[in-house]
Amino acid sequence: MKRIILILCAMAVTAMAYCQTPVKKVYDETIDPNLQISEAVEKASSEGKYVVCQVGGNWCKWCLRLAAFIENDVEVKDMVDNNFVYIHVNYNPRNPSEASKGGVDEMLSRLGNPGRFGYPALVVLGNKGEVLHIQDSSFLESGEGYDKKKVMRFFKNWTPAAVGK
Fold first, then answer.
1. Residues of the chain with pLDDT under 70
2. Separation between Cα atoms, residue 114 and residue 121, nearest integer Å
3. What is the pLDDT of residue 161?
4. What pLDDT is stored for residue 104 in this prediction?
5. Domain segments of the chain as ranges
6. Cα torsion through 17, 88, 58, 152, rounded to 10
7. CATH superfamily of 23-163
8. Which one, of 42, 140, 48, 118, lies nearest residue 87 by Cα?
9. Is the peptide bond before 120 cis (omega within 30 degrees of 0)?
10. CA–CA gap between residue 91 and residue 108 (Å, rounded)
11. Would you state the pLDDT for residue 103?
């Protein structure tokens, strides 16, 4: 019985430590999202790439999971780095007053209103900043994370080479 209690206590301590582990925040809540997008489009255009805007926020666990998945999987990261300028565009639908600040409404319109798919939403922009595709990221999920095959398929299908620039 003591052994079972010790095992349960160890599991509880591990779970508490996991829950308290700080999560890397990837969305900069202080920058103008329209300027961020414009700069990314300019950079992508000069490099022969497209832009992928991951729209969401630090408040969204799925947004942070996707960002970590892309950052930590070498093959996915290489695909993204070689074909896209990848940015995290901050938006918080839970804070309605934010919509009136920093041109957020303009940004959402510019990106084709991606929030209709939930967050994170991935928006692929062409080399002139035009919306080529909006991806509902739930189709890239598997269990409590993201499916590498689905994510790679999405990125491969939206590279400049695949689309034909």
1. 1-22, 96-102, 165
2. 6
3. 97
4. 84
5. 23-163
6. -50
7. Glutaredoxin (3.40.30.10)
8. 42
9. yes
10. 9
11. 79
Dist. CA 61–CA 58, nearest whole Å:
7
Phi, psi angles (nearest 5°) of residue 132: -95, -35
Is residue 118 exposed (0-12), middle (13-18) or buried (19+ Cβ within 10 Å)?
A: middle
Partnered with residue 123 across adjacent β-strands are 53, 134
What are the residue ranges of helices labelled H in the chain?
2-20, 33-47, 61-72, 74-83, 104-110, 148-157, 160-163
**Confidence (pLDDT) at 163:** 96
Q: Do 67 and 88 form a contact (C-beta atoms < 8 A)?
A: yes
Residue 51 CA to residue 71 CA, distance in Å, equals: 16
The whole-angstrom separation of Cα 85 and Cα 45 is: 9
In three-state secondary structure terms, 150 is helix
Tokens representing 113 are 């209103």
- Compute the distance between CA of residue 74 and CA of residue 153 in angstroms, rounded to an integer: 15
Strand partners, 122: 54, 135
Candidates 143, 95, 135, 88; CA nearest to 116 is 135
Give pLDDT, residue 151: 98
- Which strands form 84-90's sheet, in the order they lie side by side? 84-90, 50-56, 121-125, 131-136
